[in-house]
Amino acid sequence: MTALRAALAAASLLTGVFAQAPSPRTPAASDPANSSTVTLSPFEVTADVSDTYQALNTSSLTGTNRSLDRLPITAEIFNAQMMSDLATSDVTALLTKHFTGIGLPDNGTSNATGLQSGDVISMGAFTSRGLGTKLFRNGHLFLGNLGEGYSYERMEVIRGPQSLLFGISPAGAIMNANTKRATMGQNKGSIMVRADSHGTRRYELDANVSGRLAQRRVALRVAAFDADTRFWREFIRADGRGVYAQLAAELLPASQTTLRVTFEERSMLSVQPRAQSRVTGIPTIVPNNTPLSVLLGTKNPALAQIANGRLTWENIDTFAGNSMYQFRRERFDEIALSSRILPWLHGQVQAYEAYAFNDSAGPSTFQELRPPLSLNNPLNAWAVGYLPSVLRNEGVTRGVRGLLTADFKITSKLKNQLVVNWEKTTNPYSSSFGARWYQVDASGNFVRNPAQLNNTDGGRTIMPVQWVDVLANPAGHVVARQRSYTVNGITYVRDWQKYPNPANATPDNPLGFNAGSASATLSKGHTPAYAAVLYTDWFGDRVSSIIGVRHDESYVTAISQGLRFQGSGTTGNVGAVWKFSEPASFYVGASSNFSPYLTNIRRWDGVPAPSGRGESLESGFKVNALEGRISGSITAFQTRAINLTTALSAEVRTVTDPAGINGRWYIFQSPVYTYNRTTKGVEVTLSARPTKNWRTMFGFSQANGIEADNLTLPFFYNDEFRTNAQGQVLLGDGTPLLVPVSTATRVATDGKTYPAGTAVQPLTVAILRSGDANGNYRAQIAADSGLIQNAGALGLTVPGVGTGRTGLPISEHQLGFVPVVPGIQVRNGGEATSGFPRHSFTATSMHTFSQSRLKGLSLGLNGRADLKLLRYYYNNAAKGNTRTAYYWEDQIAINAIAGYELPIGRRLKWRMQINVNNVFDRRSVELAPNVATGVIDNAILRNDPRTWVWTNTISF
Question: Is 53 exposed, middle or buried (0-12, 13-18, 19+ CB in 10 A)?
């Protein structure tokens, strides 16, 4: 509650300061000089009318305020009233449950996370029109990964590749959050308390105070939140807090020169499920490594014999407890100076900075759920084991932007506005480092093995696997923020895995990190850009047109890899709106944007990923009738994305690039494949106020996409070993690898030194294929990948036996393995695109009674339907590795809203609201097949259970 109390104190103090500011006369409330309806600069969005869903304008195309019915774009906007009615400040919930046509933030695999409340979600992973999106804050900064919306007044989704303001962006949509603005001539505020049936407690403050200082109008907007959020699964939580403030000062009233200074800091401590729970050690009941979710999804009778029969949907993903801890802190600083330079010329200069810190704990190895006292489980209880580890990401983004708008006429019926934009964004540093807990001696110094200083952990001793009783002590995991732990009398201290050492420097590891630069990323970059946009109103505003162009250059240096990348490209928009009648218009628009792929992203074949581009054509009708009481658009679109990238899934990597005796081919970070796709469809967004007390909004999206490319990933051979002409397996010194004739004796660590009298024989390729005279030393070959599964027992892992080469074609397999199919098909030209619903509906309707005994009562409904959602295609091994589509069950969720507002005195109002989400408690179990094999290896209980949310708000 510290942040909330601080914000309340600041609001109280500044209210007193403004109230005491000298003023010879108190103007009337309607005095234009003291009213919030004064003329705004062209860079400021007009505030939405309160108690309605109407959003009639936006600045999310070029940074200047424009009426939506005069722009050739499709936009869906949720304002503060909509967020209040839905009782959510969660950006993720808004996007996934209420906006239309937004695709799932997952990677299209069976083990994807982000599909249930409380999951880990990358805010850059949503899709629109089946294509990528990007989230921004006030048009220039990345929104951040907290997904916390207490400081936002509206969320906007601008469909298609619209990049005139935002620059380098994907083809699907721009999502922009506008923060709360300090408003001149207005004093108001609210305090909100919210709770739900899962145990969530949330507190919010929002206040705007204004007055005069030194005869200049000033205003301050403050907001704060403190929340302990709980979810329907055990131990999953998110505890956050934040403070936001914006100060606005009218420096020169005659020229509308206004300064706005914005600050926000927010943080969140969360426990998130990031490891799928599996069970091992009871092979007579279920095979080893069986996912618990599959047992639950199929109602397997074995459930009664695992963990004392206490497995439920609420706990199977939470066995990792707080080892899946994450602490994130974000700070935003923004300053903007706007002025009317000449009667026809306005200018604005903005400077901004964002800082993000993320400490993300996740077990580097997570052992399966195991029975008491079995398979290294030392506890007399069902337990899981893991090695604690942490990944720390930290980065800064700074930028400056200058905007000029010039209004001029060529004739009385030909009005123009030219917008010129220059900006430069800089990333002075971005880093990602892993950390573990290492043994220290009595003096607190790390214990190191001098012979292993260049291994992954720099010769230090890692904390051993930690075992946790999942029933008696489910939260008893190592907490990542704790610096040291003592285990069995030995102290372990948290420290970085990687250290720079000039002695280890190589061209691809210039800082000399131990064991290479993998898991140690350090980079910097900058992006200058230039843009110009011309708006023209023709024939007395009957036709409005736009033509815009933007050029971006991007430079990134991957310091830890010794690589430098650069790319440049041009973005463009052109379109027109014809107002053929007073309430309706027809429009057509085309847009294209550029998105370079930089830093350490590599294609599966090791080649740098090429730059991408989005291209879109759309047309439709816009309506703005009855003085804005009915507004919206109907759009038909076709959008093409070129050189999209998708990271290889764990399933595909495991099969095509197995961890052989020489390692893996995909040692570079983020191996991806590139492809093209085209989507087309229809989008509808309508908001209305049929009566004074009735507000409603409706959205519909229908999209179909086609994959343009075929792509089959080959199988790699990573087990190559040294041989001679006689087919003998060789050691590094060229001598044969000797193995004992009797398997009761292990293969020597050097492959040749045995006690006297031990019968040995040279290992040969023929023996590996068929076994020796006793049938021993035959290689066990994985049927799907060709991996030599018993390489350690065969002696093939003895130092020097492997050649060190990876990524060889499977045709070079020395034991004659031939895969059933030549590779794993991940794209098939002509297939339907996946990851989003073909049909998506959303609707919200609220009615407030203003007369009779029901005065003050509000009743409403909100609903969403996602139909025909194709998750992904998989290779069905049971049907000859044919490509098979995996669809999710159609989803319909209905939410009910009821509120009551009661005046308390002259200025105070108390509003109580109850939201019941998923009224009919509709939930479905989805059985997910493995992408590479088609075997069911995950199950997801989709949608949250029926949940009530209770909100109490005091406004003043």
Answer: buried
